[in-house]
Amino acid sequence: MKNEWAKAHDALSQITVYSNPNNEPVTISGHSDDLKCVGVGTDAAVFQYRFAPSYAFKIYAVGKTDKIKTEQNIYNRLGESAYFPACFAAEEQYLVLSYEGGITLQDCLLQGIHIPEQIVWDVEAARAYVREKGLNPRDMHLKNILLQNGRAKIIDVSEYILSGNDYRWEHLKSAYEAYYHLIDERSIPFWLLETVRKWYNQRKKYFSSFDEFMKAVLKLTTFRK
User: Fold this and answer.
1) Residue 89, exposed/middle/buried by CB under 10 A (0-12, 13-18, 19+)?
2) HEC secondary structure over the chain
3) Can you give the pLDDT at residue 212?
4) Fewest CB within 10 angstroms: 8, 123, 124, 206, which?
């Protein structure tokens, strides 16, 4: 490990990540003053090391580390692209990625930051690019898309090797086009986003269609017409 990111190895070894049931975010155990957690998902957590800030370190949960090489291979197939981070290395417990500044679309909603239509166009272009590389653009949601200098950056490619359409992006795009004007630049409470997330993950059990799901969501808000 002769690369710049090798500086972070000792600090990263102090962190253990655990997955949780029901598609809930991971739990982080351990601590290092030199690390800052910059993202949490259902399989991994992402950290920035203060002495090598241009890198992001994606630590996978115990029992999920077999996905590290898979994700590295996906990045290799994607190659250099303005839509995705760069992947520099795969270690035993983590991936070394380029650190990407910006704010997730979820945080845009929480903070009332305008999400421009350019984001939709960029994600559509990114999805076409993924398909050109023989991969499947899945798992595109509010926490996996950054608003970066007015453009979209997609920060999780781990499911692109899987088959099938999870419709996450199609539903998000549909909701943006039909309803975003009702909440544009309004701060959305965290409890509301969490409720919508949990309902969405169980929508097939409780709702007959996405339209029915959205009607239920609108009843929760004070922003509908």
Assistant:
1) middle
2) CCCHHHHHHHHHCCCEEECCCCCCCCEEECCCCCEEEEEECCCEEEEEECCCCCEEEEEECCCCCCHHHHHHHHHHHHCCCCCCCCEEEECCCEEEEECCCCEEHHHHHHHCCCCCCHHHHHHHHHHHHHHHCCCCCCCCCCCCEEEECCEEEECCCCCCCCCCCCCHHHHHHHHHHHHHHHHCCCCCCHHHHHHHHHHHHCHHHHCCCHHHHHHHHHHHCCCCC
3) 86
4) 206
pTM over 0.85: yes
**17 CB-contact burial (10 Å; exposed 0-12 / middle 13-18 / buried 19+):** buried
Q: What pLDDT does residue 222 have?
A: 59
Q: What pLDDT is attached to residue 225?
A: 44
**pLDDT value, residue 93:** 94
Which amino acid makes up residue 135?
A: L
Domain end, chosen from 98, 130, 159, is at 98
Q: Identify whether residues 130 and 179 lie together within a single domain.
A: yes
What is the rounded distance in angstroms from the CA atom of residue 140 to the CA atom of residue 131?
14
Q: Are residues 24 and 60 in the same domain?
A: yes
Residue 225 belongs to some domain of the structure: no
pLDDT at 208: 80
Same domain, residue pair 124 and 73? no
Distance CA 113, CA 36 (A): 23
Q: Which two tokens stand for residue 106?
A: 């979820």
Instruction: Collect the ranges in the chain with pLDDT lower than 70.
Output: 1-2, 222-225
The reply to whether 87 and 136 lie within a common domain is no
